[in-house]
User: Fold these one by one.
Assistant:
Number 1:
Amino acid sequence: MTRTTLLNRIFQTVLALTIYSLMGVSLVHAQATRTWVSGVGDDANPCSRTAPCKTFAGAISKTAVNGEISVLDPGGFGAVTITKSITINGDGTLAGILTNAGNGISVNASGAAVTVRNLSIVGSGTGAVGIRLLDGAALIVDRVSISGFATAGIETAIGTTGNVMVLNSTIVRNGGIGVHAGGGSIAVENSILANNGVGAQAGTGATVRLTNNGVYNNLTGFGCGGGVLASNGDNRKANNVGGGIPACSPTVAIAVQ
């Protein structure tokens, strides 16, 4: 074998190893449009359907922007901070988040649209907020049960300009406020706000819009936060211990049947 031939073979070998190495790196960092979690998964997995992750936090880094995390089977999948447009979907099974400190889901994703669907989020009486929007353009909460949080079931942070839509959900047994808009707006439709400290409250400059909801058995149905509580008039209230609508200044703009 000539010296030139030997050098050519060495060059080809090094080139091949470099290509394989780059391929390996790209595979490690690849993000899928759809990932999966399972009660018996492992966050070291790629979060595919046949090798699912264990937690939402483990799956989110492996899910592409505008992708979806789906749930394979019943389980508790841990608190998560969302930093990009994404959907978390527990449809078809019991998908839960259980936390006794902090928030169940924190959304901190500037300009992003996030959807949370078919989840049970439990704060064990000591968790802070079930779902908290810190930053983001839009958040949809659909068919979600939130209970046991000390501060609020759903809350937008002060100064937030994002919009939250809550659909077909139950926000119950939270020690603080069921739905609290500290900033931006929250629209609640076809949902139940029950057994909370306050059913709904809007902070200064914020708006909570209520359509076709049941507001029951809260210590106070609607709180005075300096913002606007707006209703189209087809909500129901009953057995709110502190009264359905308190005397607020400025006046709470709401008419509840």
Number 2:
Amino acid sequence: MPAILNVEDARRLARRRLPRGLFEYLDRGTENEVSLAANRAGLDAIHLAPFSLVDVSQRRQDTTLFGTAQPCPLVIAPTAVAGLMGYDGEVEMARAAKAHGIPFCVSTQSMTAIERIAEGSGARLWFQLYVWKNRARTFALLDRAMGAGAETLVLTVDTAVSPKREYNQRNRFGIPLKPSVRAGIDVLAHPRWFMGVFARSLLAGGMPTYAHYPQDFRTPLGRLAVGEEVSLATDVSWHDVEALRRHWRGRLILKGILRASDAVKAIEHGVDGIVVSNHGARNLDCAPHPAHVLPGIVAAAGRRLTILADSGVRRGSDVAKYLALGADGVLVGRAPLYGLAAGGQAGAVRMLEILRAELDTTMALLGLTRIDQLPETLEPAARM
């Protein structure tokens, strides 16, 4: 792990270790991948102006999110296939979050049940929700998450349908997994992953499956997809937010907000926080980069709810830019997954260490001692 000096190092190592289909599922975007390039360009275009001759010998990046103190402003974002990136991947990601004192958000499509993630990690857990067509089964899943100790519910609002990812079709990677000569050669060309992750998982518990789906619909990933009742609901509306607010006893976050008007509606519906996000450029290829809309959303929302951001983070300076634009915290998804694929739990821990160290260096060079000073460094042209 000491040889990994940045997120890109881990990405390159993950690319070598993972089958192509799995790596591209993690790494790439959708359609023409315009939004993927825009994510990087959007963050690169932001400049922060340093203060000179400031004593920065005592620097702190601790913060409070939703009333809970934590040592840095990061949260590990929900991701569906961590269980294939590394053996027992969801548990190892949660342990990495625990090591850094930050929350880990468990995905609806996790391959490890939230109960076992909680028991195996001791981490602070959030739970990400895709609403199913059968709302009764959706609420039963929420009861499971609450029973396992999830403190926050994160409703994904930007995935009404599955996006078009042509590389998945070419690689024959999808759910259900589709056996093919090309996929078989791809797997055999990566024996370390096959033996250390896939074969180990088969021996430990059989073919991986979506662990949160009801037993009647929980089929191995190599078989036909789950039933209609637990398919993505395309009719999710603000009425569902109202129902979730009544049912969920903890904090409620909407993930995927890109309009100021929707942030205001979230406040009106009793939501505690939002994630300004374009889903890491994995869904709508013409979506704006969060950095472009974040200042307007912050201005519209005021301090009436907690605002998080994600998409495109590769450096601690990217975290600093989101915070400078008004975010209270930042979710990271691909970076710890690259680390997990490169080196298991130690790799995920290393990614968080690097992002925190880079954020610390950025603060020092900007002449800051606290992260709440970051908005003061934003160039006037970037303010809205």
